[in-house]
Automatic annotation (TrEMBL):
Membrane-crossing residue ranges in chain numbering: 12-31, 131-155
GO cellular component: a single term: plasma membrane
Reactions catalysed, as given in the entry: ATP + protein L-histidine = ADP + protein N-phospho-L-histidine
Domain of life: Bacteria
EC category name: transferase
Alphabetical list of SUPFAM superfamilies matching this protein: ATPase domain of HSP90 chaperone/DNA topoisomerase II/histidine kinase, Homodimeric domain of signal transducing histidine kinase
Record key words, sorted: Kinase, Membrane, Phosphoprotein, Transferase, Transmembrane, Transmembrane helix, Two-component regulatory system
Protein name per its UniProtKB record: histidine kinase
InterPro entries the UniProt entry points to: HAMP_dom, HATPase_C_sf, HATPase_dom, His_kinase_dom, HisK_dim/P_dom, HisK_dim/P_sf, Sig_transdc_His_kin-like_C, TCS_sensor_his_kinase
Originating organism: Pseudomonas cavernae
Record localization: Membrane
Domain Histidine kinase residue range list: 218-423
Length: 423
C-alpha cells in the first residue's frame, strides 16, 4: 500500500491512531467494568433484600418495607403486590427494567413455582453513571487532541533533519565542486547515513562530469589541427586549375564537410566550457547579425536545390548570448530544413524573443516529434550523411542556455521550429 501523505503527516496519523486505540480500549474497559460491577453489587444487594423479605412471616411485614425506593411483587399477590404484566417474562436473576422515564434494577427469584420480583429505583445511579461516562468521553477526546499536538511536535522534531537535508540537496549550489559535504552537519543516525550516501554519490557525479568536460575539451582541441590541415589542403587543391569538374566537386564537398566539422568541434568545446561562463561576461550581440551571416551562408545551397529562401528580419533581438552556440542552433535548424525539403520554401523569421524556421519538407509525424531530439535519431525520410545529432545538439544547447525549442507541424507538410531565447 502506497501512502501519498508526507512523512511528518504519516507520523502524526500513526501517533493519533495509536492513542485512539489505547484511549478507546481504556474507555471501553471502564464502561464494561462499570456494567459488571453494577450487575454484581446490585444483584448481591437486591438478592439479600429479597431473601430478607421472603423470610418474613406475614404480609403486613412486607407492607412495612425498610427501603422506600424498592417495589416488591410476587405471583398471585394482592393489595399492590400482584405481579405486573411487564415483569411476568423476567427470568431468575438480575435485570434492568424501564418504565417510561424511570429505570429500575430488578432481581427475580422463583420459589415453589412462585415468582418474586424486587425492584429498586436507579435514577440517581443512572445520573452518576452518565456523569462518569461523560467524563470518560471527554477524557477520550482530550487524549486524541493531546496525541495530535504531541504527534505534530514530535514529527517536527524528527523530520527537521530530513527537511533540512532535502533543502540542501535541492539547492543548485550543492552541485558545485566548492559546496561543503553534508555529513558533518548531522548526527550518526539514519539521516546522517543518508547525507553520507548523498556526498558519495555526488562526488562520483562531479568526477564523471569533470571527466566528460575534460574529454570533450581535449578531443575538441586535438581535432582542430587535423581539420585545419584538411581545410588548407582543400584550398590548395581548389587553386589548382587542372582539376576536372568531377574532382573539383568532390574537393568542394570535402571542404564543406571540413568546415562543418570545425564548427561542430568549436560548438562542443564552447558547450563544454559553457557551464563555467558568467552571463555578465558574454558579449552583447544582435540576433539579426547572426541571422544575416547564416542566410548569406545558406542562400546558395538552398537556392541551388530549387528552393525559395524567405528571410523576415522583423525585430532583431539584442542581448548577451553565446554567439557560437546561437550560431550552431540556427545553423543546425537551417541545415535540417535544407536536408528534408525538396520542393517549396524555407523561411527564417526573427521575433522579439527569438526566431522561427519553417519549411515545406516531408515533416515529422507527431509520434516521432519528441524522439527526433534524441541522439542518433533521424526522421522517417533519412537522407544525406548525417548521424542524427543535429537536433539533439540543438536541444542540449537550449537546455544549457535556458532557451526553449518547440516543434510543430505545417499544413499540408513541413516543420516549424520556434526557438525562444528569453522568457
Amino acid at each position: 500500500m502506497e501512502f501519498k501523505h508526507s512523512l511528518s503527516r504519516r507520523i502524526v496519523i500513526a501517533f493519533v491512531l495509536m492513542s485512539t486505540l489505547v484511549a478507546g480500549t481504556f474507555a471501553l474497559g471502564i464502561v464494561e467494568a462499570v456494567h459488571v460491577v453494577e450487575e454484581r453489587l446490585i444483584s448481591r444487594e437486591l438478592g439479600g433484600d429479597l431473601d430478607r423479605l421472603l423470610r418474613m412471616e406475614t404480609m403486613d411485614d412486607w407492607r412495612q418495607r425498610p427501603e422506600p425506593e424498592q417495589l416488591f411483587y410476587f405471583t398471585g399477590g394482592q393489595y399492590g403486590f400482584g405481579l405486573p404484566d411487564d415483569l411476568k417474562g423476567l427470568g431468575p436473576g438480575f435485570h434492568e427494567v424501564f418504565r417510561g422515564e424511570l429505570s429500575y434494577h430488578g432481581f427475580v427469584r422463583v420459589v415453589d413455582g412462585r415468582r418474586y420480583v424486587l425492584l429498586q429505583d436507579q435514577s440517581e445511579f443512572e445520573k452518576r453513571e452518565r456523569v462518569l461516562f461523560a467524563v470518560v468521553l471527554v477524557g477520550f477526546l482530550l487524549s486524541i487532541a493531546l496525541a495530535l499536538v504531541l504527534g505534530w511536535l514530535l514529527a517536527r522534531k524528527v523530520i527537521e533533519p530530513v527537511v533540512r537535508l532535502s533543502r540542501q540537496v535541492r539547492h543548485r549550489d550543492q552541485l558545485l565542486a566548492l559546496a561543503p559535504p553534508l555529513e558533518p552537519d548531522y548526527a550518526e543516525d539514519e539521516v546522517g547515513q543518508l547525507a553520507a550516501a548523498f556526498d558519495t554519490t555526488l562526488g562520483l557525479l562531479r568526477h564523471a562530469l569533470t571527466r566528460e568536460r575534460l574529454f570533450t575539451s581535449d578531443v575538441s582541441h586535438e581535432l582542430r589541427t587535423p581539420l585545419m590541415v584538411l581545410a588548407s589542403s582543400c584550398e590548395l587543391l581548389l587553386e589548382n586549375s587542372t582539376l576536372d569538374p568531377r574532382a573539383r566537386a568532390q574537393v568542394e564537398r570535402i571542404a564543406r564537410a571540413t568546415q562543418e566539422m570545425r564548427e561542430l568541434v568549436q560548438t562542443f568545446l564552447t558547450l563544454a566550457r559553457a557551464q563555467q561562463d558568467d552571463a555578465d561576461s558574454l558579449p552583447e550581440i544582435s540576433l539579426g547579425s547572426i541571422a544575416d551571416e547564416l542566410v548569406e551562408q545558406w542562400r546558395e545551397p538552398i537556392e541551388s536545390k530549387g528552393l525559395q529562401l524567405d528571410y523576415q528580419h522583423g525585430e532583431a533581438l539584442q542581448g548577451k548570448f553565446n554567439p557560437t552556440l546561437l550560431r550552431t542552433v540556427m545553423g543546425n535548424l537551417l541545415r535540417n530544413a535544407w536536408h528534408y525539403t525538396d520542393h517549396g520554401r524555407i523561411s527564417l523569421g526573427l521575433l522579439s524573443n527569438g526566431f522561427v524556421i519553417e519549411d515545406t519538407g516531408v515533416g515529422i509525424p507527431e509520434s516521432q516529434r519528441e524522439a527526433v531530439f534524441q541522439p542518433f535519431v533521424r526522421g522517417g525520410e533519412q537522407r544525406g550523411d548525417g548521424l542524427g545529432l543535429g537536433l539533439s545538439l540543438v536541444q542540449r544547447i537550449c537546455e544549457s542556455q535556458g532557451w526553449t525549442v518547440q516543434l510543430a507541424a505545417v499544413e499540408p507538410s513541413g516543420c516549424r521550429f520556434r526557438v525562444e531565447l528569453v522568457g
